[in-house]
Amino acid sequence: MLNSIIILLSLIMLTKVFSAPPAQAPPPAPAKAYIMALQWPVTVCLVEQCKEKKTPPPESFKLHGLWPCNTYWNSSVEKCPGSDFSGPALDDMRGDLLTYWPSLLQPENQFWKHEWLVHGTCSGLPLEHYFADGVRLTRLNAPQILSALSKSGIKPGDVKETPIAIRDAIANNFGVRPKLACVFDNPIYLLKEIHLCLDQNYKFKDCPKENWLKNCGPYQSKEQAIIKLPSN
């Protein structure tokens, strides 16, 4: 009789073990640093098929993404376990997202979902807070980047400059050293993105001197290549 009770209790315990839901991975810790990637819509739409064809792209920097990374700003942290994307959760800020964090190439929710699942889940923030922070940072700082360039005579149009002149214009007038990303549009390289480095408290920091240029010229000394900030 006692043996039967022991066997029965063992079976009950085994049933509980195997029927228990799998343990969920803990949420990621808050990001230690970020890359704030600002894109120039005119360049994007010159080299790719933008979804909006009836009106010209805006001549202002828009947020491509707010990307968690390591504290050296040279390696992103991606695809962390976290909550799924919810479009309705962003309804209250949709107008601001369309203004400051718009999708140029695909439907908005598809783009924002990608940014959340690849990058936002590694921020340690709730979905709404992550997107609200991206909007706020862009609203405050994107106009200052354009102003910094303008103060150095770098304006959208036919003016051609070296990457180092653009970098120094931002460093001198905005206060931090950025990274630049370009794209080749025969016969010239166009400025596509400006990347700003932030700490975990969203304080801007100098980006590393190494590898601060991406695809901005074929020359050994890319700092002296010629690039352009195009206009419509």
How would you describe what is shown here?
The chain is globular, with a radius of gyration of 23 Å. The protein contains 6 helices and 8 strands; from the N terminus they run H-E-H-E-H-H-H-E-H-E-E-E-E-E. Helix content is 34%, strand content 18%. Strands 1, 2, 3, 4, 5, 6, 7 and 8 form an 8-stranded mixed β-sheet that branches. With 232 residues, the protein is α+β, with helices and mostly antiparallel strands. Helix 5 packs across helix 6.
What labels describe this entry?
18% strand, eight-stranded mixed sheet, RNase_T2-like, alpha+beta
Please sum up the structure shown:
Residues 1-19 form the signal peptide. The chain has helices at residues 2-19, 41-47, 94-100, 108-118, 127-151, 163-174, and strands at residues 33-39, 62-69, 160-161, 179-185, 188-199, 204-205, 213-214, 227-228.
Layout: helices, strands, pairs:
Elements (H helix, E strand, L loop, with lengths): L1 H18 L13 E7 L1 H7 L14 E8 L24 H7 L7 H11 L8 H25 L8 E2 L1 H12 L4 E7 L2 E12 L4 E2 L7 E2 L12 E2 L4
Parallel strand pairs: 4-7, 5-8
Antiparallel strand pairs: 1-2, 1-5, 3-8, 4-5, 5-6
Helix pairs in contact: 5-6
Q: What's the order of the H and E elements?
A: HEHEHHHEHEEEEE
Count of helices?
Answer: 6
Based on secondary structure, the structural category is alpha+beta
- How far the N terminus sits from the C terminus, by CA atoms, comes to 88 Å
* Average residue pLDDT: 88
Shape annotation = globular
Q: Give the tally of β-strands.
A: 8
**The biggest beta sheet, please?**
8 strands, mixed
Give the strand content: 15-25%
Instruction: Work out the helicity level.
Output: 25-40%
Uncertain segments are none
Q: How many whole angstroms does the radius of gyration measure?
A: 23 Å
Family: Belongs to the RNase T2 family.
Signal peptide: 1-19
GO molecular function, one term: RNA binding
Keywords: Signal
